[in-house]
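Continuing the batch. This is chain 6 of the set; chains 1 through 5 are on the previous pages. Same settings as before, nothing changed between runs. Recording input and output for traceability.
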Amino acid sequence: WRTSDDAAPPAAGAPGATGAHGVPVPVLGPADLRAALTRPARAWLRHGLRIVLPADPGLPQRDLPVWVGRGEQGLERWQLLADVVQRLQAGVDPARWREARAVAGGIPPGRLGTALLDEVVAEASALVEAADVAGPEVRVPVAVDVAGVRIEGVLRHRDGRIVDVSASSTHPSAVVGPWVDLLVARAAAAAGSAAAAAIDGATVVRRDGDDPAVRTLVVADDSAATALATVVDLALRARGGPLALLPRTAWTLLDPGAGHAAVATDVARDLRAPEARLVHGDLDVAAVVALPSGPAEAGLPGADDDPAVARVARVLTDAVAASARTAVGSAA
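Output for chain 6:
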């Protein structure tokens, strides 16, 4: 059951991972829940078919290039930006990162390379500063039982907020990961964890054109348990069958104002992940809209003739809407 990099809990069926009458309890970590909702096809390949794909080269497939087509260093420039964002969040001095990148190579020579590094450091600094947190990262161990599943692992926060900063473009689906962590924090707090109770919100920073876009997220205590049970259910479905969830498309498909072009763009982006194409095949918008429900979707709320993607998308987005309050701003 365990694939995340959280602190390893007892495996399912091991001592400490049993429920009433010694029945084994599945053990998942916060990272497992996040992965199931952001990389559901990979979860099915790994846990349902025992197919382990190679590690993602450098960056997660869900992080989509913002700078492709901008100058001659489109994708390479974005990779530099994503790398320095990660380093700055870890406390690395920008000057030391610049020196290391210059030695590593892979950038234009002379003044072109200097200008490129100046740009990406400035943009990364703006993204990290937009999160507006100054405290050190705090690791909070959590252990809580939800819907017959033991959730154990580690949550990370700064100043009481889960911080998610990325060089990717802004999209409503960016709230899913931090939302899951907040749900776990609320559940752990309700179970008596004072450390988890200190986590009271999340800050998500993405790019919106040339400026950082900041989304703040708060989860209500009275709806957190129900929403987390939905997350656990979807995570188990993703591991037990090819769940018809295309993470970006889900949000766009249910947006009344979204046109064909917007849906087509997100379908293409979701299918860039190699595991998604292995599971779902070569889909277009018409195929996605008409995709019939399968065993993994059985029992989810919705009409019997609901297309699969719309059915699963509605469950996820309804759970977010019912449990979370969000505010969107700009840190330009």
